[in-house]
Amino acid sequence: MxxxxxxxxxxxxxxxxxxxxxxxxxxxDLAETDRLLRTEVRAERPRSALAWNRSPDLxxxxxINPYRGCEHGCVYCFxxxxxxxxxxxxxxxxxxxxxxxxxxxxxxxxELRAKNYKVATVAIGTNTDPxxxxxxxxxxxxxVLAVLWDFRHxxxxxxxxxxxxxxxxxxxxxxxxxxxxxxxxxxxxxAELARRMEPRCPAPGRRLAVxxxxxxxxxxxxxxxxxxxxxxxxxxxxxxxxxxxxxGAVAASYIAxxxxxxxxxxFQDWLATHYPDRAGKVMARVREMHGGQDYDPAFGRRMTGxxxxxxxxxxxxxxxxxxxxxxxxxxxxxxDLFRPPARAGDQLSLFSTDF
Length: 355
Fold this sequence. Notes:
The chain is α/β, with parallel strands linked by helices. The chain has a domain at 1-15 and 32-185. 31% of the residues lie in helices and 12% in strands. The protein has helices at 92-96, 104-112, 135-138, 140-150, 168-176, 191-197, 204-216, 237-247, 262-274, 279-289, 308-324, and strands at 40-43, 50-52, 62-64, 67-68, 97-100, 122-124, 155-159, 180-185, 221-228, 251-256. The strands form two sheets. It has a seven-stranded mixed beta sheet. It has a three-stranded mixed beta sheet with strand order 1-5-4. Helix 8 (237-247) links the parallel strand 9 and strand 10. Helix 7 packs parallel to helix 8 and helix 8 runs parallel beside helix 11.
């Protein structure tokens, strides 16, 4: 199987599988089996749209994922292990075996109309990117946004995708009403490094252009320097912050590299292939930040790390955003406008003015 623009080369069996399969050559390989690995898309019927969490590290308690898996193929993606729950590999399967959830907008509308629903900001793009390439055809994110706008529901979007520009006609009025904030992730300004590390993501310069276009449309953008890879991208922290500020971002944040579960082995294989001279240094720094382990999942430490290097990174970030005038927090979104829209046949309220 030939690979082109894929983040990893391994398709190791998921951790819940009882058996492992390894492809080996037995000398009888046929020419037609040496084909390019292409993306496959399947559909599932969503039973729920909102996913809930109680993590003290996260500024939201609910999220929406129109897709499972992500064709962007970022080698470092912390969401890769979630594919194991689908009996798929966190490796190549994560970026080539995608699951779309048609009808999720209708399910979301039903959930938002529930009598016991209490409004709070919903996050999209926290697990897999809602503006990954298949969104161009399937438009699930567009449908979800339309429902949220009809309900005047606050939403925070995180993406690397340029397809977000398509939805400015919806996003701009949401932002004007205080219902929207957008985070654009910029990992590096080095186009070659980005091509290797995030093979199907827009190039760094294109992401800066997205920030500029959203900002010009009146949409406040937070730039996310994430992840910061020690020994590989950490020297770019200040240049990235300067570039996103020039592009119009009003706030910034950062997250240190996280390597949960299967991601650690996948990332180390990638390092050995593309940057063997730096592999030892990178992993030594990673372990220094996580108490000697590849990853420390403890709340309060998993996203920033601990120790000398983590402290220095935090100080550099704080000084850079202060110098550039970038905020580290954005104003809370407006929850007061939330109102389920009327449906055909609904009885008017006794005090309704909608005549």
